[in-house]
């Protein structure tokens, strides 16, 4: 089930930066690119658990702050020679507000 | 019987709607209310009126004869105050007008930012002829005008007033101009063009207050900057003018809600223009408004029509500024960029493709192909066959891809290779044949590729052709995959071309990526900080995490906090404050560092502002234990206590640390000051070491005790503390200005030679100049980051917490 909920104003998130949303299943990083695209990914690098929200955002990619793995924000896939994937979440921008698909919470509690 | 049609608002949308209605021979008695005391004119043309290129008379769309010919009852200068839906009557203060059908076209109102002084005389917006006339009246040569807002409207206002001789400053909240239509690279070129016309642009500027007594005198920004102003124009945005509709209890979202037929929630009331909201969307550009006008005319004539918003393209109406943007040019899933930059001519073009379709285009400097691209976007044409040459526009018919070397070989000797310095191929070949066999030699003998460097690849190809196997390309690799330039080239070009922002570097040096990468961005940010300390503003998002969060990130995502202890000296009060903080924030480990500091390890990110505030309150500042910057000055106890000490090494260490702290450097810088040659402070394996002797101070540099272990090399000996300070500040500045990012001092000295460094700091004039530049930079950067960041603790916490929500 898709269930978009309002989590923040766009301007709460710095351009070329990220903020995190706390959930029972761990933190989700909400990224904002230089041209105001919004992406949501697990805030956890599959390599050693680094907080991706603290990485440098360039184009639609982020570089993990711990060991410099690079992930595509669209797909969550590691770039280059590294292999790995970060879970992505649907996110929407409406009238300056950021909406996150929180359907995963419902699924989780139903399980 | 004729229907009674009442229209509120004589703007461009309702004007076009009336034209359609009359052309179709519609049978209506029209009453037209307008708050402005005039009829319909072309608002888009207010900019040429402002700049003096047109007069008001030239932009009138409907004159008195037109209204009379169509028997329109004009109620100009009569604002409507009420809509009586039950009896279908519209009221102004002069009386009522009954309607069968009502059209609300009240347009939009400028957004006024709620700062002190916003109501002072001399503050205007940019919406109608009154505003325009106010700006014209205030734009006499020599007057000072400030425009708040660097969007389409604000820039047109700025250019118009500048054309009349006013000194104009544009203050823009975002990082680059027209951020909704342009990407940072195009925004940078636009800023450069405007600055060449004498318009000052201040980006990332938040207005705090408009100052003045009885009349506007200046604008104050959050960062403390003050711009004197005789006139302030607010152009930060518009919002739909919906008050009448709200009062009449029509359905209103951000704008008046309408369906595909432009009908509001009341079947006999319609709305169009900037005041409406259709499927959640608002409209500000003229093309969709004209489409709405057509649909509404058809609806009123009882024909079928439905409004479908189409994509729009933007052009700035400032004479001589050529920019174009259309479609959607944001990064998204599966999208690819084609980027073309011609730094010499100030041209930037970016196409955004998704699959085989063109999604968006941004162009600056050469927009001749704009409409062709816009057409491809609108038609959703398959461009896969065109892709190789798409960026060159419709004129380029394509052809087989040529071997670049063959292409260079085919060039005649008089073909220009280096545009900056006008060097042709023949001249380069002659120089190579005369013995210039390296790129540097070609540069110094011919000047080719010595300015912007974009032609370096071409020059190397000429060299490869001329020298054959004897040529080996530059062994110094490029900075990163985003560019062919080396670090050294980038540093040189930042200075010689006067590049003062990251987008400027990326544009002028032909970066291949849109936003750089995690490798070049911190390097560029450092180079700009070092070279333009007073003009460039630190870009926090181009900082590595440790410098962004002012703590060292640990493997579990927590941080370490190290307060500064000048020269390694502390007090019982500081120790108590550290102990209290460690207790209060349940710090898992408290450890003494190798640099004579105390490290609080394992602090959670959201606790950082509070722990900093506590330590600040006890008089401590950041120890920068995470920085590519001055870390620590380690000292021994020296002559104050030690029976062997020859000088006050502790006191000198503290003075050096107070001189150098806060400075950003290519890589970390650690100092040691020992009071005698027994060297208890281990000064001879530091980046810069001082060993005190009876006759003075021996300064040595380029030590290391990390992956490489090196003893420092002797730089010079001086006799006073003041000389120690000046030599070390000058040497640090030399390093700051010349080294490659991430190179420690020992690596840099190995490249440039210690003799060269010594020659610089031993020459009194050069040394003083270096010292002065260092102090200028310190006047900006010697600040405690904690004090500023601790003031906004909310920024450090999660932006939302869904754990409670799930528990419900």
TrEMBL record, chain A:
Keyword vocabulary terms for this entry: 2Fe-2S, Iron, Iron-sulfur, Metal-binding, Nitrate assimilation, Oxidoreductase
Instruction: Write down the species.
Output: Pseudotabrizicola algicola
Q: Name the SUPFAM superfamilies on file.
A: ISP domain (SSF50022)
Q: What is this protein called?
A: Nitrite reductase small subunit NirD
Q: Which residues form the Rieske domain?
A: 5-100
A single GO molecular-function term is: nitrite reductase [NAD(P)H] activity
What are its GO biological-process terms? nitrate assimilation
Record has Oxidoreductase as a keyword: yes
Q: Supply the Pfam families for this chain.
A: Rieske_2 (PF13806)
What high-level taxonomic lineage is stated for the organism? Bacteria, Pseudomonadati, Pseudomonadota, Alphaproteobacteria, Rhodobacterales
From TrEMBL, chain B:
Q: Note the InterPro entries from the entry.
A: BFD-like_2Fe2S-bd_dom, BFD-like_2Fe2S-bd_dom_sf, FAD/NAD-bd_sf, FAD/NAD-binding_dom, FAD/NAD-linked_Rdtase_dimer_sf, NasD-like, NiRdtase/SiRdtase_haem-b_fer, Nit/Sulf_reduc_fer-like_dom_sf
All residue ranges annotated as the FAD/NAD(P)-binding domain in the record: 4-277
Domain (Nitrite/Sulfite reductase ferredoxin-like) spans 554-618
Q: State whether keyword Heme applies.
A: yes
Q: Which residues take part in binding [4Fe-4S] cluster?
A: 636, 642, 676, 680
Q: Which domain of life is it from?
A: Bacteria
What does the cofactor section's free text say about binding?
Binds 1 [4Fe-4S] cluster per subunit. Binds 1 siroheme per subunit.
Q: Tell me the GO BP annotations in alphabetical order.
A: nitrate assimilation
Where does the record place the NADH-rubredoxin oxidoreductase C-terminal domain? 313-380
A GO term, aspect molecular function? metal ion binding
Which keywords does the record carry?
2Fe-2S, 4Fe-4S, FAD, Flavoprotein, Heme, Iron, Iron-sulfur, Metal-binding, Nitrate assimilation, Oxidoreductase
Q: Which cofactor does it need?
A: [4Fe-4S] cluster; [2Fe-2S] cluster; FAD; siroheme
Recorded family membership: Belongs to the nitrite and sulfite reductase 4Fe-4S domain family.
Q: What is the protein name for this chain?
A: NAD(P)/FAD-dependent oxidoreductase
Q: Which organism is it from?
A: Pseudotabrizicola algicola
């Amino acid at each position: 089930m898709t269930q978009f909920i309002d989590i923040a104003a766009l301007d709460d998130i710095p351009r070329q930066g990220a903020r995190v949303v706390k959930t029972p299943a761990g933190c989700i990083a909400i990224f904002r690119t230089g041209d105001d695209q919004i992406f949501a990914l697990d805030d956890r690098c599959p390599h050693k658990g680094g907080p991706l929200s603290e990485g440098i955002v360039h184009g639609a990619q982020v570089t993990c702050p711990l060991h410099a793995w690079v992930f595509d924000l669209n797909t969550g896939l590691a770039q280059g020679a590294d292999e790995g994937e970060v879970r992505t979440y649907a996110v929407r921008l409406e009238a300056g507000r950021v909406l996150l698909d929180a359907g995963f919470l419902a699924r989780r509690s139903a399980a | 019987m004729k229907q009674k049609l009442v229209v509120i608002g004589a703007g461009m949308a309702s004007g076009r709607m009336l034209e359609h209605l009359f052309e179709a021979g519609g049978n209506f008695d029209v009453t037209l209310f307008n708050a402005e005391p005039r009829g319909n004119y072309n608002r888009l043309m207010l900019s040429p009126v402002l700049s003096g290129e047109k007069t008001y008379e030239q932009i009138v769309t409907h004159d008195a004869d037109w209204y009379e010919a169509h028997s329109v009852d004009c109620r100009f200068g009569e604002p409507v105050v009420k809509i009586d839906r039950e009896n279908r009557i519209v009221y102004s203060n002069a009386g009522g007008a009954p309607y069968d059908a009502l059209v609300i076209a009240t347009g939009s109102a400028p957004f006024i930012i709620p700062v002190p002084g916003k109501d002072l005389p001399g503050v205007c917006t940019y919406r109608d002829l009154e505003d325009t006339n106010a700006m014209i009246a205030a734009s006499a040569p020599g007057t000072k005008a400030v425009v708040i807002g660097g969007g389409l409207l604000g820039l047109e206002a700025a250019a118009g007033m500048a054309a009349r001789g006013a000194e104009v400053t544009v203050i823009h909240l975002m990082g680059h101009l027209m951020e909704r239509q342009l990407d940072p690279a195009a925004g940078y070129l636009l800023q450069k063009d405007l600055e060449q016309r004498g318009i000052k642009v201040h980006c990332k500027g938040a207005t705090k207050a408009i100052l003045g007594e009885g009349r506007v005198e200046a604008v104050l920004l959050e960062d403390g900057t003050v711009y004197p102003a005789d006139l302030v124009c607010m152009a930060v945005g518009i919002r739909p003018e919906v008050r009448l509709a709200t009062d009449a209890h029509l359905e209103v979202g951000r704008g008046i809600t309408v369906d595909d037929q432009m009908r509001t929630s009341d079947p006999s009331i319609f709305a169009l223009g900037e005041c409406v909201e259709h499927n959640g969307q608002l409209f500000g550009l003229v093309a969709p408004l004209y489409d709405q006008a057509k649909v509404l005319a058809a609806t009123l004539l009882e024909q079928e029509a439905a409004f479908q918003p189409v994509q729009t393209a933007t052009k700035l109406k400032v004479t001589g500024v050529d920019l174009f943007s259309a479609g959607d040019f944001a990064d998204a899933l599966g999208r690819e960029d084609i980027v073309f930059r011609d730094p010499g001519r100030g041209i930037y073009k970016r196409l955004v493709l998704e699959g085989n379709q063109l999604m968006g285009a941004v162009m600056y400097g050469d927009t001749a192909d704009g409409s062709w691209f816009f057409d491809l976007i609108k038609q959703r044409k398959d461009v896969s066959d065109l892709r190789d040459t798409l960026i060159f526009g419709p004129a380029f018919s394509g052809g087989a891809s040529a071997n670049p070397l063959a292409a260079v070989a085919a060039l005649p000797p008089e073909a220009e290779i280096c545009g900056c310095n006008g060097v042709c191929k023949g001249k380069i070949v002659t120089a190579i044949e005369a013995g210039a066999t390296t790129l540097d030699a070609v540069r110094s003998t011919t000047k080719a590729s010595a300015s912007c460097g974009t032609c370096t690849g071409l020059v190397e190809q000429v060299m490869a052709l001329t020298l054959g196997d004897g040529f080996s390309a530059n062994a110094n690799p490029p900075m990163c995959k985003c560019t062919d330039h080396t670090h050294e080239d980038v540093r040189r070009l930042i200075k010689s071309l006067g590049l003062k922002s990251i987008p400027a570097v990326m544009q002028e040096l032909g970066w291949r990526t849109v936003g750089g990468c995690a490798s070049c961005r911190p390097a560029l940010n450092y180079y700009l900080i070092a070279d333009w300390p007073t003009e460039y503003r630190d870009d926090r998002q181009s900082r590595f995490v440790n410098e962004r969060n002012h703590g060292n990130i640990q493997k579990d995502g927590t941080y370490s906090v190290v307060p500064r202890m000048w020269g390694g000296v502390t007090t019982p009060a500081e120790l108590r404050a550290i102990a209290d903080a460690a207790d209060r924030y349940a710090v898992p480990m408290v450890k003494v560092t190798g640099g004579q500091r105390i490290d609080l390890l394992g602090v959670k990110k959201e606790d950082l502002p509070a722990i900093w505030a506590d330590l600040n309150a006890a008089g401590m500042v950041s120890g920068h234990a995470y920085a590519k910057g001055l870390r620590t000055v380690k000292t021994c106890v020296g002559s104050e206590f030690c029976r062997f000490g020859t000088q006050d090494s502790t006191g000198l260490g503290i003075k050096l640390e107070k001189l150098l702290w806060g400075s950003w450097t290519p890589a970390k810088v650690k100092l040691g000051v020992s009071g005698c040659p027994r060297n208890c402070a281990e000064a001879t394996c530091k980046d810069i070491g001082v060993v005190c002797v009876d006759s003075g101070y021996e300064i040595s540099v380029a030590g290391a005790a990390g992956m490489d272990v090196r003893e420092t090399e002797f730089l010079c000996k001086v006799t006073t503390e003041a000389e120690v300070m000046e030599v070390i500040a000058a040497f640090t500045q030399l390093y700051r200005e010349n080294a490659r990012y991430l190179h420690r001092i020992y690596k840099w000295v190995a490249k440039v030679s210690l003799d060269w460094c010594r020659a610089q700091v031993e020459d009194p004039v050069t040394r003083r100049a270096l010292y002065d530049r260092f102090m200028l930079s310190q006047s900006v950067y010697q600040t405690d980051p904690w004090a500023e960041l601790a003031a906004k603790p909310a920024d450090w916490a999660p932006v939302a917490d869904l754990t409670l929500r799930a528990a419900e």
